[in-house]
Amino acid sequence: EVQLVESGGGLVQAGGSLRLSCAVSGFTFDDYTIGWFRQAPGKELEGVSCISSSDGSTYADSGKGRFTISRDNAKNTMYLQMDSLQNADTAVYYCSIRSYWGQGAQVTVSS
């Protein structure tokens, strides 16, 4: 059974940092692009960042210069380092690989 489990969400003040983790089991993701998505209250799901099997990364404009995606293939885990967080970053964050999704991690940024 494939499982993706996010962790690291929480409440942080604007300007602070959080690091999300996504542990993948039942699936070896070395050869796949993996990504982070988010859904803010009342808004549609949007892509945040993705990283390819060769460690090439892309970011949505909203996170460029503030977010850093990474992966550790030995641990089957991916990460999203989020710095200089803003109120607009408040959302549920999901990791995804192929058709599999995690349960989501709530990130709340307070003023």
The fraction of residues in strands falls at over 45%
Q: How much helicity do the residues have?
A: under 10%
Largest sheet: 7 strands, mixed
Low-confidence stretches: none
Alpha-beta classification: mainly beta
- Would you count the extended β strands for me? 11
Helical element count? 0
SSE order, as H and E?
A: EEEEEEEEEEE
- N/C terminus separation: 40 Å
Shape: globular
Mean pLDDT: 96
Q: What does the radius of gyration come to?
A: 13 Å
Account of the protein in words:
The protein is mainly β and 111 residues long. Helix content is 0%, strand content 53%. The chain is built from no helices and 11 strands. The chain has strands at residues 3-7, 10-13, 18-25, 34-39, 46-51, 57-59, 67-72, 77-82, 91-97, 100-101, 105-110. The strands form 2 sheets. Strands 2, 4, 5, 6, 9, 10 and 11 form a 7-stranded mixed beta sheet that branches. The chain has a 4-stranded antiparallel beta sheet with strand order 1-3-8-7, with no helix packed on it. The chain is globular, with a radius of gyration of 13 Å. The relative contact order is 0.33.
